Amino acid sequence: MKSIITVLLSVMALSAGAQNDPAAKAILDKVSAKFKTLKTVQANYTLNVTNRAGKNAGKKNGTIFVKNVKYYITEKSLELTSDGVKMWKYEPAANEVTVSDVDNSNQSGITPQRLFTNFYDKDFIYKLNGNKTINGKSLAEIELTPIDKRKNFFKVYVYVDPVQNMIMSSKIYENSGNVYEYSISNLKTNVALDDALFVFNKAKHPGVDEIEQ
Prior knowledge:
CATH superfamily: Lipoprotein localisation LolA/LolB/LppX
Order of helices and strands: HEEEEEEHHEEEEEE
Number of domains: 1
Number of helices: 3
Structural class: mainly beta
């Protein structure tokens, strides 16, 4: 999925929990607890991609909406919609939507819900690196190393606003050498979001080609 949301990588197998930093856990636990109290979350995001050579490989802007297990992510070249049962991936350029079932048993993937809640507890070794100023805000930098070396990334950094107890940006280092940097702005919580937002509406996309997976 293309959003703030995405967060994962790997290097070598490590013993779960053996090297976890209590200070980092305390911050991440607060993020998880805060998110669980929210009825909805809405935010704009920016994705910057840097390649192995350190050159800019692209930039995308989008918006994410989350309501319980439902989410809707939209940007110029892609829309991801899920009502918690089905997931629709719509590509405007091809006017094509791929429909698949949501696999709730698959804990290796990162949904918006897992990103903001307890994704870190079983999948990563984590530590607090201190504070870093980003866009004029002092954010806690937490370094996460995936336990599963089969992941396509080896390091993730998340930056947490200690006042709002929310993840405001993240940086993902892929084994390929690409770096994905997400940042969040215009964060709103508990705004009214209609359930219809989280179901793909074919009527709004005349002639759409639907592919079932």
